[in-house]
Design a protein that fits this description.
The chain has about 300 residues and is mainly α. The chain is about 75% helix and about 0% strand.
Length: about 300
Amino acid sequence: MTNLIELYVKLVGLALFGFILGRKLPATVPTRVGQFLFWVGVPISIVAFLRKADLSGQIWIAPVFAYLAIFLGAFLAWLGIKGQVFWTKNSIEQQTQGSFILAAMVGNTGYLGYPIVLAMVGKEYFAWALFYDLLGTVFGAYGLGVVLAARFNGGIGNYQTVFKALCINPALWSFAFGLLFRQQSIPNLLESCLEVFAWTAVALSLMLIGMRLSKLNSWGSVPQATASLGIKMLIVPLILGSTLPIFGLTGEVAQVIVLQMAMPPAFATLVIAETYGLDRELAVTALASGSIVLLATLPIWLWLF
């Protein structure tokens, strides 16, 4: 409970501070902060936290559950769309269907998932969160997510751009470097500086979430957003989380995977929706609402697992 209260203070405090800054500062600031974290902050943090992470056990199964969560979320969202059409006899626009499915399948397992896992489970199990995000969510969002977006936008999409974005993703490169670098001994001062920088990047990522939320002005499409969040943040984690003991995943490891599965929709869903002409209003509403709903669902998952 003490850890949870401390986490809430940090989450709400840093996000609120970022929200205020986002209202006061020019619109280019969140973009610059995001670029810094994408190219420098997050990659160095990955290298730093990997040095103290435990890579033993069935860690390869983390991305497997990431893909299971992505596909299950997409399938349940598709069933929900078909069910609504059947009962209401009203068709749903293709663009709205695309945003609905995206919001139900891709979670914010990086900028939000990392600090939550670090605070509640610790650095020792951080590698599980990394494997889930970098080898699961990233490819799910910018691979399957883009394919679906192109499908619901009439098949328009530049797949070469998607492939290039995956290849130059600095987080993936730093992940590979961190795995090779983690056993190398470095001076204590450099180790301390590396860790301080990593935690600073974590705090900055939470502030960035607040900055980005301050720029979201649309709160429409609440019924559709509520349904997609129910799938993403409740049904999928409950179904897949209950199967974890079958694979011998319990304790802190199970917590990491469930927490990653239960994250709200990622900002990537909004980026993809805007790029491929999907329902931006639904994407914005699901993203903003999910960030708030997380405060209520987080204790549930920590209690259940």
